Amino acid sequence: MPALKKFIFTTAELPDSAIHTLTTLSNGFISIRGVPELTETSTGTFIAGVYCDTPLFYRELVNLPRVVSLYVRLDGVPLVPSEEVFTLDALRGIVEYKAKLVARGGYLEYTGVRLVHAKRKEVVALRGKLVSRGVRGRLTLDLPVELNTCNPSVPENICVKLYRVVEKSADSQAVRVKVVSADQRYSVEFAAGAKSSRAALQAYAAGERVGFAGEVEVEDGSVVTVEKLVAASTAGEAASVLNAALNMDFNQLAASHSEEWERRWRELGLEAEGDEEFVDALYLNTFHLLQMYNSELPFFALPARGFHGHGYRGHVFWDTEIYALPFYLILKPEASRKILMYRCALLNAARYNAERNGCRGAQFPWESADDGFEATPREIPLDLRGERKVVIRTGELEHHITADVAYAVWLYHRYTGDDEFISQCGLALLIETARFWASRFEYDSSKGKYVIRRVIGPDEYHVGVDNSFYTNLLAAFNLQLAASYSRQAGDQPEGREVLSQLNVTDSEVREWERIAENVFLPRGADGVWEEFEGYLSLEDYTLPEGCIGEACVPEDVLARVEKTRLVKQADVVAGLFLLRHLFSREELSRNYEFYKRRTTHASSLSIPMYAGLAAYIGKLEEASALLRTAMLADLKNIYANTGDGFHVGSAGGAWTALLFGFLRLEENRGKLTVAPVLPPYLRRLRLTVNFRGKRYLLEVDGKRASIKELS
Amino acid sequence: MPALKKFIFTTAELPDSAIHTLTTLSNGFISIRGVPELTETSTGTFIAGVYCDTPLFYRELVNLPRVVSLYVRLDGVPLVPSEEVFTLDALRGIVEYKAKLVARGGYLEYTGVRLVHAKRKEVVALRGKLVSRGVRGRLTLDLPVELNTCNPSVPENICVKLYRVVEKSADSQAVRVKVVSADQRYSVEFAAGAKSSRAALQAYAAGERVGFAGEVEVEDGSVVTVEKLVAASTAGEAASVLNAALNMDFNQLAASHSEEWERRWRELGLEAEGDEEFVDALYLNTFHLLQMYNSELPFFALPARGFHGHGYRGHVFWDTEIYALPFYLILKPEASRKILMYRCALLNAARYNAERNGCRGAQFPWESADDGFEATPREIPLDLRGERKVVIRTGELEHHITADVAYAVWLYHRYTGDDEFISQCGLALLIETARFWASRFEYDSSKGKYVIRRVIGPDEYHVGVDNSFYTNLLAAFNLQLAASYSRQAGDQPEGREVLSQLNVTDSEVREWERIAENVFLPRGADGVWEEFEGYLSLEDYTLPEGCIGEACVPEDVLARVEKTRLVKQADVVAGLFLLRHLFSREELSRNYEFYKRRTTHASSLSIPMYAGLAAYIGKLEEASALLRTAMLADLKNIYANTGDGFHVGSAGGAWTALLFGFLRLEENRGKLTVAPVLPPYLRRLRLTVNFRGKRYLLEVDGKRASIKELS
Fold it and tell me: Domain named Glycoside hydrolase family 65 C-terminal: which ranges (chains A, B) (predicted)?
């Protein structure tokens, strides 16, 4: 069991919204941000997969009714919390919230404990305790399910209610609500029960609330506890789930929940010793990555900001496959399979996307919601009238996501050996994505090469470029994968069936190989890969050492950034790290050095790739500093937008850098190899590595490393 | 004093939203919809002139914080009203609201009385009384100012908060809030006080509320009263206004408020006897038209749906000058002057509009907010993603509003003789609008006439037509007015100064006359004016007798309505009624008969013009039926959208038809003439007519009419 201390957050150290993200609880079905129960808010509940049509953002996760509120009045007057302290007990998956409710005569000491049950996926439980310190009078306790939540839009003045209440009732035992998404695709039921040690709570249904309320007299020293249980169901089972849960008290539910969490931590075998902040962040990120996975769902649609906030609207980006997947792959491989199953489920939509864009095969959308169609906003208004707008072209032009999915299939198969997945869906993903690229490449006779014109690479400063190194490299790799997997598939009956269903012919496979072997990769002098064709003829600008973000770029340079060699994030570096086996160490180093002075790291996806590559090429000191930044991104709110949600890409990317850059896990002809180094601030690291159905205990300290198979 | 009964509305007869419109209270500064104080709602407060940038609608009236709420709990449990009865005492300007709050043991009988003070424009007062019928326990009374109101947008899922709270405080006497519009143009302060007969109320500030709350024990028969006073100020005076008001109790405030209302009714001298519904509607409409006028403001920006709802977003249309102005002109002439002052204040914006559209002079916007620029939405989304949209071209093409403003100047001057207004602004309005038309007309040499291409007339079924009869007619009249007023202005020093400031030359005046005399008005055979050039060559379709609205038009006809002769509303008929002195009675009759069979009356603006013209040409029976429909539009929710706000055009238009069609008021060489007939359902009508600074008592009954000057 890791020496996992409780995380204590206070508003003195972090903005409220960042704390609410960091204390979000999820079981991969229900997710609830850590907004305190005592405070009115429009922040409600996410249910995995429940999206709705929405302005600007195509479809987004619906901000469903708020279920955790507990409002307190003294002699009728609403009380407001102060001196708030939030504690995340990541070992047990529980959030504790303490606050003072100052009132006449003294204050009430409030302690709330909440959980989103790790095993009973439909259940949320809350226990609140109030202790009077000098306060006398009558307390009103109100425990509603609130039906007035809405999705904040852009500008922030706009809120969009994406559900409609279709049923609402209260009886002595429970209150119930049924809501339907505004586009009618999903319905969700909620049922809630509540009880108190001393107050007689009564169920009610009133306006935009159902709930329980009651009153209780308090004297100095009085203790009042209250428990609230909520069940949510997309299968019409909220009432029966609630009834079953109501037979247990909060302690019983908390015990079974915490047991499950302890089991999970044991399973990971993760132990880290060293710099406290880094270790904290490692555990915190691991907790958040773990809690979003729900083994009971057919796939794992993991949004770029988790289920932790409205950032990127619950959309899935390449962050999932390229940055987050390796963590699950090594530590929780069944979750990584379900990440790929999400793309499998949406393969037909990807075919439609390709066709609509005049291509063949399957094109995955840059941003993906529940239906697999392109969900990237086209423009974002900057003012209320929508007269000034930011135009967003990534949905139209950022195509590498399709190759990233193929890359993830390959990575998954290498480390799991899961042949069944390949024949079930992986091969189809490789083939259909390759077909997209085969139709997307054009033959440039002047170059004698295949080229891709007009894309956005990972570096989004440069829009509509030709021959993006990253894109062309990954696309060529995608074609190679499709060709080699198709050739191998011919050897087994399952594989042959896939090839036959998809009408893959030998000549098509040869075409993929021919294109892949003749892809144009723009190259400068001195072994530097050109980020895209013509990049090196742009105005040069190099950043001061240690600069992160755009703050250190002069405004006038930023204003013409697309005309300079500045890049927003790891791009060539990302491609080199992902396909490091294809490049010499010297080549990796040279490009790393070149681009690091020209990268603003304005995206949180940048640093992890730099960290990974730096570690891989042996620049341990730089790598360690970068890794620390990536790992601490949310714990320290480094990008100042943790409030919008958990940075899945940063947390996963830090793990990726650790696994592949520092520990240097590598599949080699079916065997696992490691060549670990640790950052200097880490004394010891231990974890269970999953590889091809087996589990290995990897232990590293300053002096030595060991890996042994677990029985 | 009119025999003005109280209006009693129940939800059995009308939708809630229509009742909320009909029980809206306003003093022309503060306006509050009749949403009951006991019910949570996002409907807050309008302050005249406080608009903000907004999605789709350019700028709209800000839905400011809600100030009238009074929430009740029993033993902590929220109570919900039932058996609601709303009473508008239009004689005294007070709304009474009764409801039952059913609770354990029986119910609480609630009676609320509210007013928006007619003289103390910054003051809103509410008194609530609760009587226990069998209920025992502790009541919580909560009287907040709620800071979570927002402007509902389209689709209705979207709400936009158009203000920001910048200050919030509570002390023992009062709670205070200061808000600023989201675009920073306006700030509004609110201060509130509250007291109760039995509960000790305590001020609080909590989350999105400030307010007063407290508890009280009740037994069967207990009576609890509570009073809430709110002051609102755009001049930073809310606190001092509140302090002054707090020295008075509710009864004193209600007395001074009611005295003012009784004085207003006495001033009007309005008495009507006859059909109860018609008389009710006449008084009701008169009340709503009266209450919106605020003599303390420099101008009277009267929105098409009043301050009664979000319909048309607080925008001002031609409804104001053409439909509503005559009521004020005859009954409250200082209000009609301030209606014109609104256009005066925005003359520079109108000059900008003209210039932007490649014209000269001043072009008033089809929809006008607080800044005088075009505020018509260009498209309205039909779904959440905004993929399906209704395109609205009236902002671009419906130009007659500019001539309507000039017409209103003429009407105002004829009936008031207010020469000072003419030299202060009226003449400038006439000149600048004429300049717009002079640049908008083109000379068509094949016709030897001046033509206007590509407009929308009042009939919005036909978009982008050439030579709209109404538009060309009113534009020609505008040019004539400018010419004749300019010629007369040359005789006085004030007039000469205006002409000199605006650089009006003799040759320009002659050009206006030349164009006006040679305007092309499309004419069919048989003396029927063609609604626009080519109209009579469209497919004919005649409606069944007595058909109102589009429901009686077959769907396939409606789908190609722009290809038929169907018109949405009075168009040629409107032009003829407005300028009836220019046409023979035979011509008026012929066109009335032709168009009445082809008009769907899908706009509430249609029937009043038909009623007026029918009465004017002596078709008393038809006219009376039409007048009844126009007058009852809101009382009977005839257009099923009274919930969106009060139909200013319909109420004002019914009055216009009554004054000019039935009573046949007419200015004739500086004298007032009348030739009254009454609809058969009206036994007697009496009112004070204002004409050229004098007041006349007009009395009409079935047998005779009299008019005498009042001293």
Answer: 666-708
Q: A132 with A168, same domain? A: yes
The CATH number linked to B453 is 1.50.10.10
Residue with tokens 């109100």: A142
At B172-186, the pLDDT tens digits run 889 999 999 999 999
Whether residues A65 and A88 share a domain: the answer is yes
Overall average pLDDT of the A448-455 stretch:
98
Average of per-residue pLDDT across A229-250 = 89
Dihedral (CA of A539, A544, A549, A553) sign: negative
Task: Kindly report the number of other CB atoms within 10 A of residue A540's CB atom.
Answer: 11
For the sheet containing A25-26, what is the strand order?
Answer: A25-26, A30-32, A45-47
Count of beta carbons in the 10 Å neighbourhood of residue B505:
11
Q: Which of B251, B282, B299 is the last residue of a domain?
A: B251
The reply to whether B126 and B241 lie within a common domain is: yes
Mean pLDDT of B39-66: 97
Question: Is pLDDT of A427 > 90?
Answer: yes
Q: Which tokens hold the place of A538? A: 């742009």
Please indicate, yes or no, whether residues B245 and B377 belong to a single structural domain of this protein: no
Q: How far apart are alpha carbons B305 and B375 in whole angstroms?
A: 15
Q: Which residue range is the domain that position A291 belongs to?
A: 273-307+531-711
ipTM over 0.90: yes
Query: What is the Cα–Cα distance from B349 to B344, expressed in whole angstroms?
Result: 10
Asked if the peptide bond before residue A155 counts as cis, ω within 30 degrees of 0, the response is: yes
Instruction: Express each pLDDT in A646-704 by its tens digit.
Output: 999 999 999 999 999 999 999 999 999 999 999 999 999 999 999 999 999 999 997 89
How far apart, in whole angstroms, are the C-alpha atoms of residue B221 and residue B218? 8
Whether A80 and chain B come into contact, CB under 8 Å, resolves to yes
Instruction: State how far the Cα of B250 lies from the Cα of B255, in Å rounded to an integer.
Output: 8
Query: Mutate which of B63, B168, B385 to disrupt the A interface (most A C-beta within 10 Å)?
Result: B385
Q: Which long-range contacts (CB under 8 A, 24 or more apart) does A78-82 make?
A: A78/B142, A78/B204, A78/B206, A78/B207, A78/B209, A78/B213, A79/A38, A79/A103, A79/A108, A79/B206, A80/A38, A80/B204, A80/B205, A80/B206, A80/B207, A81/A36, A81/A38, A81/A39, A81/A110
Minimal Cβ distance to A54: which of B140, B141, B385: B385
Residues of chain A numbered 322-381 and touching chain B (CB < 8 Å):
381
Tell whether A289 and A238 lie within a shared domain: no
**A259 and A406 assigned to the same domain:** no
Query: Is B141 in Cβ contact with A150 (below 8 Å)?
Result: no
Same domain, A544 and A516: no
Find residue A24's DSSP bridge partners: none
Please give the Cα distance from B404 to B406 (Å, whole number): 5
Lowest mean pLDDT among A147-156, B287-296, B537-546, B583-592: B537-546
The single residue listed with the structure tokens 């294809």 is A582
DSSP string over B198-240: SS--EEEEETTEEEEEEEEEE-TT-EEEEEEEEEEESSS-HHH
Tell me whether A525 touches chain B (CB under 8 Å): no
Kindly report the CATH number assigned to the domain that includes residue B72: 2.70.98.40
Pairwise CA distance, residues A621 & A680, whole Å: 8
Provide the number of structural domains found in chain A. Answer: 3
Q: Is B105 on the interface with A (CB under 8 A)?
A: no
CA dist B619 and A523 (Å) reads 89
**The token pair that represents B265 in the structure block:** 């009714």
Q: How many alpha carbons fall within 13 Å on the CB side of residue B408?
A: 34
CA of A360 vs chain B CAs: smallest distance (Å): 26
Task: Collapse the DSSP code of B262 into the 3-class scheme (helix H, G, I; strand E, B; otherwise coil) and give the result.
Answer: helix
Residues A431 and A302 reside in one and the same domain? no
For residue B665, tell me if it sits in a domain.
no
Q: How confident is the model at residue B545 (pLDDT cuts 50, 70, 90)?
A: confident
Per-residue pLDDT of B565-577, as tens digits, reads 999 999 999 999 9
